[in-house]
Amino acid sequence: MFDIGSGGSVIAVYLFVLGACLGSFANVVIYRLPLGKSVVRPGSACGSCHQPIRFYNNIPIFSWFFLRGRCGRCKAKYSIRYAMVELLTAGLFLAAWYRFGASWTLIEALIFIFSLVIVSFIDLDHMILPDKFTLSGILIGLLGGALNPERDFLDSLYGVLLGGGFLWAIAYFYFLIRKREGMGGGDIKLLAWIGAVLGWQSVPFVILVASVFGSLVGVVTILVKVRRAPTSESSFEVSESGSEVPPLAIPFGPFLASAALVYLLADGASWAQWYLELHGL
Ligand SMILES: [Zn+2]
After folding, report:
1. Measured between alpha carbons, how far is 91 from 19 in angstroms, rounded to an integer?
2. At residue 46, does pLDDT exceed 80?
């Protein structure tokens, strides 16, 4: 750990604000990129009255609460998710500062956090992990491994091979057995990207923790659905096509991303080292 003096808290505030602003931009990218729209122009407009959002009503985190989640002009309701994405990015930037301090790794961590937030929410909305992010993430991760004096390039390279190779092997055997695709190619590229940034040592940890997160959320989702099933039949939720419940589809990307962030920010490296030493590696 490094010493966080008074200068440190100024930077902490700065990084929190930067994270909130980039979180606001992340909201734009999450919404527009999958639709093939420009993420730069036009500026943010209300989805209901189509009027541009005034700059003082577009202050990250703050505006949503000040306007009680409504458009400043037409009072249409906005999802709290916009504010949450801003708060999440800001909080993660702050955590990265307290974890790494002024270092090359901090810069890599901020880029990694910002990109993971975007791909996670795109995956939640559309069940896709855009190549634009995963493939360039792998390249930037490898570049970081080569240029960042605090990291080792070979750790990074093996991370790509292990991360990509492990899930690819699972997907391949699943395909052999079930004759259909189980795991998306996007997940494979995401794990290769995570391996590039966090090193090969992180890969077992990330798979394990992501699976635990995924199972927990999966079980909760099933329980909630089972509970709601009887009531939905008597209400307006019944679809015209019949009573068939749609299959559970939970993207795995957000769990991989969450596990990677736990590893990054909660010193997963020392857990992983302990685990590897336990097995004589
Ligand atoms: Zn409006």
Report:
1. 7
2. yes
- Centre of ligand 1 from the C-alpha of residue 29, in Å: 20
Smallest CA-to-CA distance from 208 within 247, 166, 174, 171 is with: 166
pTM for this one?
Answer: 0.84
Q: Measured at the alpha carbon of residue 147, what is the angle toward residues 143 and 153, in degrees to the nearest 5?
A: 70
How is 192-231 classified by DSSP, letter by letter? HHHHHHH-TTHHHHHHHHHHHHHHHHHHHHHHHHHHHHHH
CA of 83 to the centre of ligand 1 (A): 17
Task: Find the 65 Cα to ligand 1 centroid distance in Å.
Answer: 16
**Amino acid identity, position 38:** S
Span from the CA of 119 to the centroid of ligand 1 (angstroms): 27
Ligand 1 centroid to residue 91 C-alpha, Å: 28
Query: What residue segments make up the domains of the chain, in order of their start?
Result: 1-102, 129-234+243-281
Which token pair is 79? 């999802």
Give the integer Cα–Cα distance in Å for 78 and 208: 35
| Structural contact between residues 189 and 129, judged by C-beta atoms closer than 8 angstroms | yes
- Using CA of residue 165, residue 167, residue 170, residue 172, what is the dihedral sign? negative
Helix (H, G, I), strand (E, B) or coil at 244: coil
Whole-number Å distance, alpha carbon 117 to ligand 1 midpoint, is: 26
Q: What is the pLDDT of residues 104-123, one digit of tens each?
A: 999 999 999 999 999 999 99
Ligand 1 centroid to Cα of residue 43, in Å, is 14
